[in-house]
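Per your request, structure below.
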């Protein structure tokens, strides 16, 4: 693919993406989502009137990304409360929708806890529902603030590691505004570098099997006027060998207590490549992604997705990236290994950047100390 070098004019910013919002309609409240399965072909919104609809959106990846899943889960509880559904049942459905992304459970439990606390104090149903909505909205605002702080800490770390230069950054999967209440995690760092005029190139892995780099990160980079190039995941090694990567920036779906990081499958081999080529490998994630109850990386449950995502190629215009109805590219009945994530051990990670600061070297002790300073640590 040709390089994309169209730059956003100085002083101009593209309009912010409307990824998720609460709306009050005459027939009742709804949660409105930008359907990420339709990007980049078209920007289409999904309207969820109940929790089962939101669960379907989560499972089909219409809404995705660890921080945003936490926000969506919180709003899902508020939606159930506002519409008079069983909040405990709704919370259970939402928590089970995706097993690896720890933020989802965090958001669900936080808002449900606020709702039940209000109910125990004698609040009427409508009052308790209002409390739940307020908690979900606060979670949304907190994530936006965390995104900005991570971008600040991440750019400062790059300057410390690679002083006085522009950067060629490689990223994997999608970590921008499409996964966040703000401008993202790892992508937010690259975007800040771009705004400083120091981004030489953003290398975007297409990210198999769901092509979230090609479909979503390239889409966000183009909207932001960033210099970027899209590459197949298997081409990353040749970039390292040629000295064309200054640092790797990825996000995380779960960080275990020992500092192991679960992220989109393909992250671990990038960490190995970075280690061999002496390139910083940096994880950017909010403290809500840390799960201190999961002792080590081997204990992280890795989601296995449908083999049809690998054996078929489906156009985003079809409205689903889950396989089915696409062009078959493998023999009928071909066995498929299709994990959604892999786990990178802490010894391969240069630093973890959070809104509370940077951990380097990455150790369980350092992670525990940082999380002790935060009120947002996830408890499983």
């Amino acid at each position: 693919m040709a390089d994309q070098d169209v730059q956003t004019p100085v002083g101009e910013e593209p309009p912010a993406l409307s990824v998720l919002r609460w709306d009050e309609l005459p027939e009742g409240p709804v949660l409105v989502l930008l359907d990420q399965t339709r990007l980049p072909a078209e920007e289409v919104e999904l309207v969820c009137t109940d929790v089962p609809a939101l669960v379907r959106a989560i499972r089909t990846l219409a809404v995705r990304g660890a921080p945003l899943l936490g926000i969506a889960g919180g709003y899902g509880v508020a939606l159930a409360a506002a519409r008079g559904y069983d909040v405990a049942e709704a919370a259970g459905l939402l928590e089970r929708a995706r097993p690896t992304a720890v933020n989802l459970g965090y958001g669900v439990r936080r808002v449900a806890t606020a709702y039940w606390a209000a109910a125990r104090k004698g609040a009427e149903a409508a009052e308790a529902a209002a409390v739940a909505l307020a908690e979900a909205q606060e979670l949304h605002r907190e994530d936006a603030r965390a995104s900005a702080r991570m971008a600040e800490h991440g750019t400062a770390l790059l300057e410390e590691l690679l002083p006085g230069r522009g950067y060629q950054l490689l990223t994997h999967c999608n970590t921008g505004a499409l996964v966040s209440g703000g401008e993202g995690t790892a992508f937010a760092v690259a975007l800040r570098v771009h705004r400083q005029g120091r981004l030489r190139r953003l290398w975007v892995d297409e990210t198999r099997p769901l092509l979230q780099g090609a479909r979503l990160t390239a889409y966000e980079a183009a909207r932001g006027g960033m210099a970027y190039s899209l590459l197949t995941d298997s081409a990353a090694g040749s970039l390292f060998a040629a000295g064309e990567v200054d640092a790797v920036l990825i996000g995380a779906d779960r960080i275990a207590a020992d500092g192991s990081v679960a992220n989109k499958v393909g992250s671990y081999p990038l960490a190995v490549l970075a280690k061999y080529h002496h390139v910083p490998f940096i994880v950017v994630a909010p403290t809500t992604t840390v799960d201190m109850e999961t002792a080590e990386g081997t204990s992280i449950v890795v989601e296995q997705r449908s083999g049809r995502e690998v054996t078929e190629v489906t156009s985003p215009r079809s409205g689903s990236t889950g396989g089915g109805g696409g062009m078959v590219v493998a023999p009928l009945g071909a066995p498929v290994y299709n994990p959604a994530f892999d786990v990178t051990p802490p010894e391969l990670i240069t630093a973890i950047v959070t809104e509370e600061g940077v951990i380097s070297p990455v150790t369980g002790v350092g992670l525990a100390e940082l999380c002790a300073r935060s009120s947002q640590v996830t408890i499983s």
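The longest helix spans residues 125-161.

Regards,
D.
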